[in-house]
# Entry
Amino acid sequence: MHRQISAPVGAPVMGNRNRGGVKASAVRLLSLCGAFGAIALLGITVAKAQDAEPRSYSNTPVGLNFLIAGALYSQGKLAFDPNLSVADANFHSKTGLLVYVRSFDFAGQSAKFDVIVPASSFSASGPAISRFRVSVNLIGAPALSVKDFANYRQDLIVGISLQVSAPLGQYDSSKLLNLGNNRWSFKPELGISKAVGPWTFELAPSVTFFTDNTDFFGGNNFAQAPFYAVQGHILYTFQSGAWFALDGVYFSGGRTSLNGVKSDNEQRNTRAGFTVALPIDRQNSLKLSASTGITSRTGSEFTAVGVAWQYRWGDGY
# Structure
């Protein structure tokens, strides 16, 4: 059975039923809202803990600008509260991404500032959740010019980052499913990258905190517990500059509550995939990626494929 995700599944909670009926409907809505909340984030692959991002803390010459245009297609199913008899709810989404990155010198180490602006298509289309990210390498990645960077060889890099998602996406409180979430999120992360010859091994634990959505589906208060995640990557870099990565991520948490009533929808999910980057010339490169769910308790179990074109310019280019 194929269910349309745009159906008004939460409508009964707004009706004038008896107290028991309203309570049952509220519990049903609570169970569903966690799954729909996760699906609303699928269009932006680098958002939240589900997204594996290789080379996030690799050293980059300072003074460079990167403009990235990409597209992602996702399809899969919703994994609901185990106590709720709802199954086989399928979805698909299309997302376009525009990303700007600027590298700079921070206390003698390399750092980057990212702005990610997605546009998604679900049962509706429009701007989704915008993200802003600052990453700073603490050791092993000195701030270098393009000329000096030619002699750099990576050993061990340790860095930190803070990602902020702003409530700028399309949002309508009369709808259960939205491209935006009407809330802020904050994701601090630690990144460790170790190079051994052409191989690089990366590990990045993180936690994502959310503010409440105080105008969720008819004026309700929607809250979500933090997401805890750890992602790992094994990369091989070829002499041509092309590289290949095996990606994996495990995340848990994210339990939701509606008006203070907690739902049994804590997520414990595992994903795996790969990324391939191909340099075209000195300024252009192409990136291909794919990932799929390995295990999923609640939330979303989906497969995603993406393609992105990167153009860089700046000092030395």
The helical segments are 19-39, 146-149.
